[in-house]
Amino acid sequence: MRIVWLIFFSVIGVVFSRQLTSNFYHEESCRGGYCVLESECTHHVNNHDKNLCPGQKDRGAVCCKDFPPEKVNCYQTHNACFPKSQCPDSLNLGRKGCTGHKTCCVLV
Q1: For a Cys staple, 56 with which of 14, 61, 77, 79, CB 3.0–4.6 Å?
Q2: Among candidates 87, 90, 30, 36, which has minimal Cα distance to 103?
Q3: pLDDT for 66-105, tens place per residue?
Q4: What are phi and psi of 91, to 5 degrees?
Q5: DSSP E strand stretches across 6-108
Q6: Structural domain spans, the chain
Q7: Nearest-angstrom CA–CA distance, 9 and 98
Q8: pLDDT tens digits for 20-38?
Q9: d(CA 88, CA 38)
Q10: Per CATH, is 73-108 categorized as 3.30.300.30?
């Protein structure tokens, strides 16, 4: 039974960490997509799209079209990470890749 729980929590950890692996900002040239690691894209990335995140390409960023919006991080949604105490509940989007005790807060 211990092994089953260990496998379960390992899988859960991979699923949640997979959403937070890349922390790239959106680049104008990547219209209709998000700059993410190629391994995070659910489909094949063609050579043209591999060059649409030039400012972050050296860190492995590619433009992934049709990337699920619920998986993008706080910076990709043009918001910012703040301590929970500084973000009203109505503007709080959850962690979305923020570290520590910070939360993703809508910038208005």
Answers
A1: 61
A2: 87
A3: 888 888 888 888 899 999 999 999 999 987 888 889 999 9
A4: -110, 0
A5: 33-37, 61-65, 80-83, 92-94, 102-105
A6: 22-71, 73-108
A7: 21
A8: 477 888 899 999 999 999 9
A9: 34
A10: no
